[in-house]
Amino acid sequence: MNEERRSQQTAEKLDVEDIKLTRKSKLWSKLDNFWFHYKWPVIIGAFFAIILIIGLVQIIGKDDKDNVVVFAGPAQITPNQCAQIEQELSKILPDDLSDDDKKSVAFKSYAIYSEEEFKLANEAETLANGQYDTVVTTSQNSANYKDYDDYLQTRECSIYFVSPDRYDNFKTYNQVCHMSEIFGENIPDGMMEDGYGFMLGQLPLYQIDAFQVMPANTIVCLLKQPVVGSSSDDETYESMEKFFKAIINFGR
Fold first, then answer.
1. How far apart are alpha carbons 83 and 104 in whole angstroms?
2. What is the pLDDT of residue 41?
């Protein structure tokens, strides 16, 4: 009797397992069939969903800057030094374009050397260290030039702190504003003889330690309003022009 009951229980157990296995097999078959027919749409959809999520996170977490200033010249400015310059420039900035109740400036730095500046920098380093030790290699300088030129094409910024070499380049291509267009007859002291910029070392701004990481012969200038890019927007360019005037008039 007991043996018969055990046999019956064993049979019932096997039947249950068969049912579970059968159900699992049907579900697996459906999933396998779905994956076979829709594998690539699922993969592509997941890829774009990830891109969308990353983009939304970046947009939500983005710290919008109200204005941008660019340095391009023979100086290696560290990220920490750039941050200090940003803090000082933010104090001068007149407008809060992003409407986030704070004024902030992005300061971008490109260490680029003309042939003459490259030679002088290496000679100075040789005298300082007693051995030939380049400040920046030729390949690095070329790469920095390319990065600078690429950024310049974006037309995101109109306020530039540049070396005399880059300043002459702006004038050659008629890209820089004459200061009479900005200040009229009331042009502050320190303007270049040609009238297209101001020597940084002659501005009160240069008395602030943060700005002394740039050479004294750095020239501060304003590019003409472009037809494309962020600076092409009238409100944005007007804000940049206003900011430029605040930089030049600081401390007067």
1. 11
2. 74
| pLDDT tens column, 41-65 | 777 777 776 766 654 444 433 447 7
Rounded to whole angstroms, the Cα distance separating 6 from 245 reads 98
Q: Residues near 92 by Cβ (< 8 Å), separated by ≥ 6?
A: 243, 246, 247, 250
Task: Decide: 80 and 209 in contact? Cβ < 8 Å.
Answer: no
Cα 171 to Cα 89: distance, rounded to the nearest angstrom: 25
Strand order in the sheet with 105-111: 105-111, 67-73, 159-162, 219-222, 198-199
- pLDDT per residue as tens digits for the range 136-151: 788 999 999 999 999 9
More confident call, 109 vs 251: 109
15 residue type, one letter = D
Sign of CA dihedral 76, 78, 83, 88: negative
Cβ atoms of 69 and 161 closer than 8 Å: yes
In this prediction, residue 52 carries a pLDDT of 62
Angle 220-246-75 from CA coordinates, rounded to 5°? 30
Global confidence as pTM: 0.71
| Separation CA 114–CA 199 (nearest Å) | 18
What number of helices (H) and strands (E) belong to the chain? 7, 5
